[in-house]
Amino acid sequence: MQLMDYVEASSMLDKYGIRSIESRYVSSAEQAVKFAGSSPIVMKVLSGKALHKSRSGLVKLDLRGKEEIGRAFAELEKKAKSLSPYKIIAQKMAGKGIEVIIGGKTDEQFGKTILLGLGGIYVEVFKDFSLRICPIRQIDAKEMISQLKSGDVITYNGKNAKMLEELLMKVSKLLSANDRIAELDLNPVILREDGYDVVDIRILK
Amino acid sequence: MAKMDLEPMMKPKSVAIIGASRDPDKVGHVILQNYVNAGYQGKIFVVNKNADSIMGFKSYASILDIKEKVDLAVIAIPAPFVPEALEECGKAKARTALVISGGFAEVGNKELQEQLVAVAKKYGIPTMGPNCLGIMDPRSRSDTLFLPTYKLARPQIGGVSFVSQSGAVGSAILDMISAEGFGLSKFISYGNAAHIDEVDILEYLMGDDSTKVIVMYLEGIKRGREFFRIAKDAGKKKPIIVLKAGRTNAGMQAAHSHTASLAGSYETNIAAFLQSGFTVADDLNDLLYYAKVFESEPEPKGNRIAVITNGGGIGVITTDEIAASGNLKMAEFSKQTVDALKKTMPVLVNARNPLDLAGDADGKRYEDAISAVMQDPNVDMMVVVTLFQTPGADSSVASKLIHYKERSDKPMIGIAMGSEYTQIHKLMMESSGFPVYDSPAAAVKSLSALLKYKEYKQSH
């Protein structure tokens, strides 16, 4: 299995109407500054050799202004040397909200499956996730949310629920239509009052 | 794969028992004996080349010597000879075959099993097993279970069909069912699933009119996508209750070596069940609890429960269970019900839900309470607690409950716990179609499942 290029993955999501947060590869601090414009950004090192980016200090959050971005870029470049080949990606900062994880994998018996859980450590520690076989319908998406112990946390407002249901159906559609996807992780997806941000994407093909 | 016709296996007009024996220790003997004992009305043919006659039946050297049509060939001979025997079944145009014999993939003998499947496919003969207990249909009295009737009681006729890969779980459950008051439509223990597997069985039972409820114990599902496709249709047609083994990795490894089947990941299996509206059981007891409620009870109109009890404590525990169920709630009696109760109940009985009839409640008091509550438009389902240890509770209470149960179009179930005296009354009620549970938790989770399934059917 092999990790799909981030930008390729992002544009794949785009085709199914799944908006991931605005991102681009940067090869210099100047490019990053230009990309940031007046908004805060995040920079990450992407390398097949580093799976846990934040634990290895390969993520810099909430970077503002030329100086801060420049310093962060230099630091990341230094750390990434041993991880070659690598790329540095800059992303707009996501808004605040509820973090969820949406995943997908191919089951030997049943084919594509889709997973939903509350983001961060909750999925792993409390094993609080729901799973369905693709393709799913709206009622399945609805039940995926209500089945979670943390369902009420995720849908503290009704708008969130609807938005998440639609997002789940889009991801299911993408999974069903693309045989070559072995695994998919949208983690985290941040649900806001007025929308969502897919912050990180990992697609294994 | 084409749909397999299992009808001739379940309702055979003629059965050939290959490997029938005079020796009471042989499986083939017990099977023949059981067909005779059960009063099977079709034709029985005995195949054993080493005998002229067995138990008064003429013994044929081969199924090919039988000049009449055979609907079901039961094969109970040592494994190495099975493929050849099946070949003969194919040539004789037997309509179905069932291989009791073990000694195939479950002991690592995959090649022999593949040989068997190749023969089954060559002749297009639906073949169950190998390594299985087989089937029992109390209506047709076809019974291939090689367990003597004195060891394993056979349940009465009813609407529940029970499917189990494992013979041991299957026979234990069958014995447990016969102690419950509900009846059986089909029992199917399909062993290694070499040819006929869970998909074929589910598809057959979905279309079987005498099956009202399907109960499955599954270790592995071989054809996941096909299973899911059939399951989604089946789940909408009738209630299906499933217990999946292999919840943990340890359990899964045990399943591998047991029936040589590929246990899929537990969570994915459960996902397929939930998406198909199945009721997922956590334990063997759950299978019986759910089977009981789905066999006898009508669809609930809503989620409001009335609790009638002759023991205050059990009423409270039941109320707790209802509140914690997630989808049920306590009903609030209408003014009309409250007025009626005030007229008929002694002063010490409060006209509210849970309705505590007090320890001296007799048949008359139960009658007055139930007749008022069952008409209440605010009540969708009823739980009636009868503690038979109390002074007033005797057979007259049980008969009143049965009387009103027959007249109720709302789900009505009982709770009674205790030893012999209670068990007698439990059986009395259950054989009249009034399911009785031995704990508030079991009763409430069963009603909760009943409502959940109704909601599934409405929304899917």
Short description:
The complex is a heterodimer of chains A (205) and B (460). Chain A has helices at residues 6-15, 29-36, 65-80, 122-126, 138-147, 151-154, 158-177, and strands spanning 23-26, 41-46, 59-63, 87-92, 98-107, 111-118, 129-133, 183-192, 195-198, 201-204. By secondary structure, chain A is of the alpha+beta class.
Folded structure, characterized:
Chain A has two domains: 22-92, Dna Ligase, domain 1; 98-204, ATP-grasp fold, B domain (D-amino Acid Aminotransferase, Chain A, domain 1, 2-Layer Sandwich), CATH 3.30.470.20. The mean pLDDT of chain A is 90. Helix content of chain A is 36%, strand content 30%. Chain A has helices spanning 6-15, 29-36, 65-80, 122-126, 138-147, 151-154, 158-177, and strands spanning 23-26, 41-46, 59-63, 87-92, 98-107, 111-118, 129-133, 183-192, 195-198, 201-204. The relative contact order of chain A is 0.18. With 205 residues, chain A is α+β, with helices and mostly antiparallel strands. Chain B has 460 residues and is of the alpha/beta class. Chain B is 41% helix and 17% strand. Chain B has helices at residues 7-10, 27-37, 82-91, 110-123, 167-179, 198-206, 224-237, 249-259, 266-275, 284-296, 312-324, 335-344, 363-373, 395-407, 420-430, 440-459, and strands at residues 14-18, 43-47, 53-54, 57-60, 72-75, 96-99, 127-128, 134-137, 142-143, 157-164, 184-189, 213-218, 240-244, 279-280, 304-309, 329-330, 355-356, 381-385, 412-415, 436-437. Chain B has a seven-stranded mixed beta sheet, sandwiched between helices. In chain B, strands 9-8-11-10-12-13-14 form a seven-stranded mixed beta sheet, sandwiched between helices. In chain B, strands 15, 16, 17, 18, 19 and 20 form a six-stranded parallel beta sheet that branches. In chain B, helix 15 links the parallel strand 19 (412-415) and strand 20. Chains A and B meet through strand 7 and helix 5 of A and helix 7 and helix 9 of B.
